[in-house]
Structure to design on (874 residues):
């Protein structure tokens, strides 16, 4: 039992067991997250199946450039996150802190672009509710109410995703401070590792949201 | 037995090169999915879009999230999440697809 | 017991102040917190049931108006399902026993465990607030578009309460799964684990994979009601059936959340009081997992008459019958365990035997209902009400009470009065059957559920049912009294009053804070009851090879 023992809670035998438990716990939590978003994806699937033309119409009002850029931003942030974990694994915490800062900034860039998109949607009256108005339809045959349904899913899915991003940047900020204080080393970096898992998961959700919301014909 | 395989490669270190290659692959796939969506090919659009998304997700899960280097139990958990989502969507759609 | 004394230091007297309870991370204390909270919710739900059973004594609506009646049965359903039955056995007995049964000092994430309790209480308080604020009249199923458009009640607060409590379930399930994988004592292989642990593990699978869907569904209900987003609203192009799909994707497996842990308890009680190894250990173990998986494929049998496609109905009908197979395997195995056993009819065993009979009735009527033709006839009648009460009350509550009696000496260090235990078990059994058997007939004759007035010809059976309900209610009060009494006056139990097998019986009663003074080494299978003889069991038949802490090689996964 080495120095890592200082981090081992009383009910564990050793650091390895604690690490295994934390990682397995995070993966199970991510499985529950799959099902949480899964409920919304199921709703999306059924409604898109019922109103394919309206969903294509709604998608044509998305800002493709913003969406594509945001995808790239998140993919890059996943890379920096993975590299941050690796830096701690090879005992270079200073590098890890910088990479985590980059991840954090990329997270905020994503949220900023998302906020810009939301603002545009409000200005164009594309938010479901009493003030909804489709404006000029590319396909005049569609029922605006069904397009409204598309936007309902757009805000629901991206809204819950953005909520997860907010939680994500908060946790990344916390582990960045912990790393900066020298709490992690190759012997113990469990919080960093499981934060990484969460961050990548949120990225994956976006990887599916992007084609489902921005790229419908 | 599956049991002991949980204590495994807990400190597997992936080379920077692998991470970078995966990232480049992800960007290529992103470009591909945007380009593919510009071409009209009916229901295939959805198939192509989702296949690329699944590929990207698989790359992230296997390399960034280290599932490739992880234990049997962790892999089962990841599979269970995907499988259960498939159950939910497939059986629900079985109703919608066969309604008269 | 030769030395009739409680151990000097145990988890109950380790600390006395309030914060040592409210901030505890000891799984045993958290179990006690759950037990107290659940008892409260059980009686809240019970009072509602007594009130509407009183109303149903007469065909006219003379005690309450229909709006109040609707709120009463909704209160009963919501509180009993989400705030009693679903957490009951996992949160109380599972929390208390699971770490001990696998020889661990605590669950894998003790703080998360405490957080689960706080989430549960927060959800419970929201639900209580919704009840005090006027109640909910949608039924516990919150069907749209009624719940989102028309219901003039506290739907949002109630949905939010269940949403929050759902995360308590998720965290409990997560904790159990991780604990089972990573915290087992040396020698505790998967097939040496008590079947109780297998049952909790299978339940946890449902907690973890099902509950998030309920959470998002109820969040959607709240959003739909608050913002009118239209996903479930046919006027806006949405589909109410989508709600039913999502709701039942969780809420059907939720029935197995109630009954799988119960089966787990029965699998402990039956071998102990028959003094035999469980028959077909692996079948019982795997049937738990099979039930957990299959339970996710059957939800549409709640929707046979809701406008779902005929073909989907056929598929759901088929899968629903399939779930009966692993359930029947368990019943056969318990029966085979009883065969030629040396059976003693102590209170836990009375509950267990009651469970087996009532669950069989509930399960077989479930097969009737899985048959679409019969379901169309009895859908939304009292036949359904009787069927699921045979599972949820005759099954889950019986198992919970059986388990509480079985492990009461372990939890408190004292025995409950055996005679009163047996008497109340019999009263509950009689009261239960008198309450719910007439409802099978009522439903078959065509009395619909959820109405507070009914046709004259149904009165006799309704009076029988209400009379049974009062017996049942009285029966539930007796254990409340004598269990509390036993805390002070009960006979000192000693570590293993039943001569039962299992690691939890090797440690003193009540156990010390970290469960074992020395991590146990497991050298034999579960339920290794010796071949039947009249010899009394030795006190330490499991712990004959104590090994020092440094020498042992941890084995787990």
């Amino acid at each position: 039992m080495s120095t890592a023992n200082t981090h081992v809670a009383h009910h564990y035998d050793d650091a390895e067991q604690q690490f295994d438990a934390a990682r397995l716990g995070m993966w199970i939590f991510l499985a529950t997250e799959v099902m949480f978003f899964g409920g919304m994806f199921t709703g999306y699937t059924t409604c898109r199946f019922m109103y394919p033309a309206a969903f294509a119409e709604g998608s044509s009002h998305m800002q493709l450039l913003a969406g594509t850029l945001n995808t790239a931003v998140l993919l890059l942030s996943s890379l920096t996150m993975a590299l941050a974990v690796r830096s701690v694994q090879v005992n270079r915490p200073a590098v890890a802190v910088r990479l985590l800062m980059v991840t954090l900034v990329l997270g905020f860039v994503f949220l900023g672009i998302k906020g810009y998109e939301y603002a545009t949607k409000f200005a164009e009256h594309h938010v479901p509710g009493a003030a909804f108005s489709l404006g000029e339809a590319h396909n005049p045959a569609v029922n605006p109410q069904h397009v409204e349904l598309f936007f309902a899913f757009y805000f629901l899915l991206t809204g819950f995703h953005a909520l997860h991003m907010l939680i994500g940047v908060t946790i990344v900020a916390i582990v960045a401070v912990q790393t900066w204080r020298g709490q992690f080393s190759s012997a113990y970096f469990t919080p960093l590792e499981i934060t990484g898992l969460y961050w990548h998961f949120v990225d994956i959700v976006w990887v599916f949201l992007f084609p489902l919301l921005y790229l419908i014909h | 037995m599956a049991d002991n395989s949980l204590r495994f490669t807990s400190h597997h270190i992936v080379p920077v090169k692998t991470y970078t290659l995966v990232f480049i692959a992800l960007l290529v796939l992103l470009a591909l999915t945007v380009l593919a969506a510009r071409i009209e090919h009916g229901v295939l659009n959805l198939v192509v879009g989702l296949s690329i998304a699944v590929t990207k997700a698989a790359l992230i899960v296997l390399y960034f999230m280290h599932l490739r280097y992880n234990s049997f139990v962790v892999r089962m958990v990841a599979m269970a999440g995907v499988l259960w989502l498939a159950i939910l969507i497939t059986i629900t759609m079985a109703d919608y697809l066969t309604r008269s | 017991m030769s030395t009739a004394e409680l151990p000097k230091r145990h988890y109950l007297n380790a600390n006395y102040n309030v914060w040592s309870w409210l901030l505890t991370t000891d799984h045993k204390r958290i179990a006690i917190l759950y037990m107290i909270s659940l008892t409260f919710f059980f009686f809240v739900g019970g009072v509602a049931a007594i009130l509407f059973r009183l109303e149903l004594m007469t065909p006219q609506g003379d005690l309450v108006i229909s709006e109040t009646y609707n709120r009463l049965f909704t209160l009963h359903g919501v509180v009993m399902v989400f705030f009693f039955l679903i957490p009951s056995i996992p949160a109380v007995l599972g929390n208390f026993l699971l770490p001990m049964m696998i020889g661990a000092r605590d669950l894998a994430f003790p703080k998360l465990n405490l957080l689960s309790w706080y989430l549960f209480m927060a959800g419970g308080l929201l639900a209580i607030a919704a009840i005090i604020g006027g109640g909910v009249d949608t039924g516990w199923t919150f069907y749209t578009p009624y719940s989102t458009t028309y219901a003039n009640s506290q739907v949002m607060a109630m949905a939010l309460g269940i949403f929050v409590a759902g995360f308590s379930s998720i965290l409990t399930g997560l904790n159990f799964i991780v604990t089972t994988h990573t915290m087992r004592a040396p020698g505790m292989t998967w097939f040496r684990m008590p079947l109780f642990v297998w049952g909790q593990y299978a339940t946890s699978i449902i907690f973890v994979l099902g509950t998030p869907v309920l959470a998002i569904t109820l969040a959607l209900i709240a959003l739909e009601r608050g913002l009118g987003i239209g996903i479930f609203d046919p006027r806006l192009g949405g589909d109410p059936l989508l709600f039913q799909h999502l709701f039942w994707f969780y809420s059907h497996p939720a029935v197995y959340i109630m009954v799988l842990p119960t089966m787990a308890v029965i699998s402990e009680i039956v071998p102990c009081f028959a003094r035999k190894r469980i028959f077909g250990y692996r079948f019982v173990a795997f049937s738990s997992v099979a039930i957990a998986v299959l339970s996710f494929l059957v939800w549409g049998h709640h929707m046979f008459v809701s406008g779902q496609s005929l073909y989907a109905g056929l598929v759901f009908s088929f899968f629903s019958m399939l779930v009966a197979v692993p359930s029947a395997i368990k019943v056969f195995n318990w029966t085979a365990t009883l065969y030629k056993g040396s059976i003693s009819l102590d209170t836990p065993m009375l509950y267990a035997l009651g469970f087996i009979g009532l669950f069989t009735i509930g399960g077989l009527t479930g097969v009737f209902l899985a048959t679409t033709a019969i379901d169309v006839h009895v859908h939304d009648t009292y036949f359904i009400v009787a069927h699921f009460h045979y599972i949820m009350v005759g099954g889950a509550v019986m198992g919970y009470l059986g388990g509480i009696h079985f492990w009461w000496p372990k939890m408190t260090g004292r025995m409950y009065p055996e005679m009163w235990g047996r008497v109340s078990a019999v009263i509950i059994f009689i009261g239960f059957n008198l309450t719910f058997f007439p409802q099978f007939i009522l439903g078959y004759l065509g009395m619909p559920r959820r109405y507070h007035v009914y046709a004259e010809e149904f009165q006799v059976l309704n009076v029988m049912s209400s009379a049974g309900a009062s017996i049942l209610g009285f029966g539930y009060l007796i254990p409340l009294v004598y269990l509390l009494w036993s805390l002070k006056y009960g006979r000192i139990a000693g570590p293993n009053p039943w001569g039962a097998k299992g690691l939890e019986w090797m440690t003193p009663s009540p156990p010390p804070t970290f469960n074992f003074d020395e991590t146990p080494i497991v050298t034999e299978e579960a339920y290794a009851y010796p071949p039947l003889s009249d010899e009394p069991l030795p006190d330490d038949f499991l712990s004959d090879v104590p090994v020092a802490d440094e020498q042992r090689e941890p084995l787990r996964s």
Notes: Chain A has six helices and no strands.
